[in-house]
Design a protein that fits this description.
Elements: H1 2-14, E1 17-20, E2 23-26, E3 36-44, H2 54-63, E4 70-78, H3 84-91, E5 97-99, H4 104-113, E6 121-125, E7 133-135, H5 138-141, H6 155-163, E8 174-180, H7 185-202, E9 207-213, H8 218-225, H9 238-247, E10 255-259, E11 265-267, H10 270-276, E12 291-292, E13 306-310, H11 316-336, E14 345-349, H12 353-361, E15 371-376, E16 381-384, H13 393-405, E17 411-412
Parallel strand pairs: 3-4, 4-5, 8-9, 12-14, 13-14
Antiparallel strand pairs: 1-2, 1-5, 3-6, 6-7, 8-10, 10-11, 13-15, 15-16, 16-17
Helix pairs in contact: 6-9, 11-13
Length: 414
Amino acid sequence: MAVESCLSRLTELLGDRLLFGSTTVQLNESTFNGSLIALYFVPLGDEIASIDDQALRDLYKTVNENEKKLDIIQICYPDTIDDRKCFDELTKSVPWHTVLYEYVEKRIRLRHKYRVENAEHLLILNDNHLEKVHTRNGLKLLSCEKSFPWTDLWNEKICREALKLTSNEANDTIYGLYFSAHWCPPCKAFIPQLIHAYDKIRKRINFEIIFVSSDRSEQSYKSHASTMPWPSVPYDNNILRTNLTECFNVRGIPYLVLIDNNGNIITENGRAEIIEDPDGSYFPWRKRFVYSLSSRLLPKLQSYPAVVLFIEGDQEEELELAEGVLLPVAQQIAKTRNNALYDLLFFIAPDDDTSDTLRHFTRLTDDTAPLLTLIDIPMARISVMEYGIHITEKSIMNFVLGFFDGTMKFSPIL
């Protein structure tokens, strides 16, 4: 049963067939027998001639000379274009597996699932379930002095090194890694808000924060750290500070990520959560069945398909009525339609500027409300429930099931 479950998950993620060289092969339980699996993301764009994977080929050959230790799955995701000629150029001679060109949705969803930017990425994963990321920095590690599999540089070990800086070792402790710098005005402005939330939360829950500095001098680091009541990574431990920044793909500061004691991410955008929830009443802000749409949540729609119910007003009573019909559907979908590639999110969109922004972006010119939609920005498409159908728990469920069984009709988001 475990083998069947693993194969089912792999098929859901990658498809039932893969490309190997110029041959299409069937995915089965023995396709990947390496100790580690790597996902190699390559953008399909105009710069394919600049992509040099020789170092990765050399590693693949070396570590697999005596026995299979590494499997690589290449995902060529649409970036500036999605061109078959580019795809064939990038895959015709690689010695590992590739997700098929025909599986365009899987290639797009995989990119968003693993939070891959517009560049090459090599992610080292833990097992055939492709569940846990050991490291996001595989390409950088190709040139490091340490030998494969780079266990000293895996995310979990780096996080554990950072968590040793705190005195709280309770298993239920939630940790915040706060990336900040003295030269950054938004960082300085956010610290009083973070301290306020920190004090409130610690009265109820085991919570610790560690400051990870991006300061340009030790003097600036010390000045900045002195304004915070929590420990920090020492300035002279530049390796740990750099590794943590890369582990969590930090692209801007201030940035607060919440993790457990194994380095697993609980909440990525802690800063936005604190701004909206200053006392940390909903800490640690885990995934909800139904969200009320706000400007801070708009980025979620860039990565996941979402059921969005636009309503007429923005009062608490109207929001509660909308949640009453949407919540049972969201709970049932989460229970019965779990998908390895993505989460289907559910939103209530009050009548406000954020909803107007979303309508404009999706070319939803009709300002009717209530209006039930399924907005799939990663796939650049939108579906609107047929006009005249009363919005009830049953009609919402029927609409959503069409998404899963492939009968839902979409219009492109141009």
